[in-house]
Amino acid sequence: xxRARIASTLVAATVAxxxxxxxxxxxxxxxxxxxxxxxxxxxYNPRRLEKVIAANEVPxxxxxxxxxxxxxxxxxxxxxxxxxxxxxEFTRLMVAMTNWVAPKEGPEAACVYCHNPAxxxxxSKYTKIVARSMIQMTRKINGDWKAHVANTGVTCYxxxxxxxxxxxxxxxxxxxxxxxxxxxxxxxxxxxxxxSVALASxxxxxxGPYLSDAKPIRVIGKDALPNGNRAxxxxxxxxxxxxxxxxxxxxxxxTYCHNTRSMAEWDGSPPQRATAWYGIRMARSMNNEYMEPLxxxxxxxxxxxxxxxxxxxxxxxxxxxxxxxxxxQMAKDHPELGGVRPGSAAAAPAAPxxxxxxxxxxTSATTPSMGPATVFFAVGSSAVDADGGKVVGDLAATxxxxxxxxxxxxxxxxxxxxxxxxxxxxxxxxFAVRDGLIxxxxxxxxxxxxxxxxxxxxxxGEDRLxxxxxxxxx
Length: 474
Prior knowledge:
By secondary structure, the protein is mostly helical. Helices cover 34% and strands 6% of the residues.
């Protein structure tokens, strides 16, 4: 063989190696979850899975202690969150939190990360204020969001993994532009491969619309153009961006939650889809109820480029695993993170405060058996909150117990604001309740969406009673 031919062969081999270097090296592991030939399977690369497994190792639990004895709130000063714990249990949790969040040595590690060592009751450090809120958030997740976390639950370690700041959080992104002016310089919120969407050129902010705001996640329109079809191509691209994030965060394919027969249909979808439905709403609720209110507490260097606080997404807890820590039940070793103990001092009702009349409206509630139900919504939102999720769950249970029954859903809105936008909002609220019932296992043909004669509730202003969905079982 001539030298020229040998050289060309080496060049070709080098080029081929370079081209193939980005491909997955065999052998991949394939887990089939549906009929052969339907593509219902999960593909895992053992080489990459090793890193994910290492990142999801569980630290050993501390020895249990007697939960009895005097309460921490009676012994220590300024205990505003964990005063319902016994002193021994309180101390054990403080040690565990140190190991979960700030285990490294240094002037700002261990207890000193949150506390003033000269006065542990002092609230001068912002980290102590934040820690209180995060404990409350953890208890809220474990107590009210079992539709997503089940009995596995979460602890501080689920997100922090030994780091003061969780590795996977998100901020509002700065709009990106090209170096040229005019229309060609507008990236339209996308066309810039971003890690937030697994390096796709989809819209690079899939979190703001869905994990902070409550934009409808919808790809397939139900109405023909131009009669109210809001399922635009742009909406589909944002939805795909969120799906790419979820797939990357959990280390799974689309078929983990969807059926290839029809990605949009709930009938036949794996049960994980319903779990993910609640997960989106849980993340949104935690960001709005616990993270956003801390904006003034965090110093500037802990905020994003637009001045907002760090917020959670799917990767915050999952970190590449289909279940955080591959389903390890760390929370069972810390039942104190499951909620405030009934009958304790910390569980006593807070002193009454002056609130607007709208805030005293009844929460989402349902009557027993086959009675009607109501789901209430926040201003400008079509997101089903934790209270509404309980109502939807109760409705689903009633429908399952009465297989011959159907349900009718009607959405309403308040009187203030743009009428056309409010009417669309009322419809989105009805869709949200319908989607929740389908996610809970109720067939779509048992659900009837009924537009009332007047979607504007017969209530003025921003009264919460106007922002509702009425449900009747028949």
